[in-house]
Amino acid sequence: MKDAPLNRIGVFDSGVGGLTVLKELTQQLPHESILYFGDTARLPYGIRSKAEILQFVREILIWMASHRVKMVIMACNTSSALALEEVRREFPFPILGLILPAAKAAIRQGQRVGVIATPATVTSQAYHRAILEIKQDVTVWQVGCPEFVPLIEAGRIHDPYTHQVAYNYLQPLMEQEIDTLIYGCTHYPHLAPVIRQILPPTVRLVNPAQYVAQAAEQELELLGLKSEVPAAPTEFYVSGDPEQFAQLSQRWLGFCPVVQQVSVDQVAFSYSVESTCP
User: Fold this and answer.
1) 187 assigned to a ligand binding site
2) Where is the active site (predicted)?
3) Using CA atoms, how far apart are residues 40 and 139, in angstroms rounded to an integer?
4) With pLDDT > 90 as the criterion, what percentage of the chain qualifies?
């Protein structure tokens, strides 16, 4: 992409979950320009194998490299858990994941930590290992939540069925009397109104988006890459239906984004679609 702006931060997720990271980045790093990609044609990631996730992540990173990014944030816990260490060695720019920043935040807040995440993230034991490597006397419980991402992507956050599903997922953690809960998927903060209704008010919530944004700022400063000029408007791309993404994301962005569709397995091919929201 010869005409692409230099020095953008690439952010990717399987869908709208990464918007929680985008929100934190724009608040904490207002001078940074961002390139956002949602792999909506292949969501949910949480039921995929490690081999599939690695393939998807490599394709997205090759595409982002063609857009001349200076850093990439995996705004997806599943990708962070299954692919981060491998792809970090393959690309010339820094790549940040969500697991370690969230684990560090959780142990500062409690001793009985619950994690809700996709089945793939739970199976990887990434959060469990990260927390215990930092502090061994913390107890960790994890629950896989396969229905959350499809419900969020379908815009069913306030559906009574979603409340019942959330209660079923959270009940085992409440029985263990957790004092801290990690949103182990960037989609899940969108369910905060539902989750907060179910959990006791004493349970602290850890949103990894907040802490990966802090880590990004520290990394940019360390590498001398922090922008000092006003940010360009965020560019949004998806692999699936741009209209659907635009309409769903409008409620969290506060505006209707122009979303472009791109085929990640053909990095030279993309075309713009003017998104409209009702």
Assistant:
1) yes
2) 76 (proton donor/acceptor), 185 (proton donor/acceptor)
3) 35
4) 91
Would the annotation count 121 as a binding residue?
no
The three-state secondary structure class of 90 is: coil
Would you say 186 is a known binding-site residue? yes
Q: What is the pLDDT of residues 40-85, one digit of tens each?
A: 999 999 999 999 999 999 999 999 999 999 999 999 999 999 999 9
- The tens digit of pLDDT for each residue in 149-206 reads 999 999 999 999 999 999 999 999 999 999 999 999 999 999 999 999 999 999 999 9
Quote the CA–CA distance of 64 and 59 in Å, as a whole number. Answer: 9
Catalytic option among 145, 185, 256, 277: 185
Element (H, E) at 75: none
Say whether 185 is catalytic. Answer: yes
Active site residue 76: yes
Cite the DSSP H helix spans in the chain. Answer: 19-28, 50-66, 77-82, 84-88, 99-109, 119-124, 126-134, 148-153, 160-175, 192-198, 208-223, 242-253
45 annotated as ligand-binding: yes
- Let me know: does 34 contact 11? Beta carbons within 8 Å: yes
How many C-beta atoms surround the C-beta of residue 276 within 10 A? 10
Contact by Cβ (8 Å): 227, 31? yes
Selecting among 76, 145, 256, 277, the annotated active-site residue is 76
Is 254 among the annotated ligand-binding positions?
no
> Hey, what domains does the chain have and what are their CATH numbers?
8-97+211-273 (3.40.50.1860), 99-208 (3.40.50.1860)
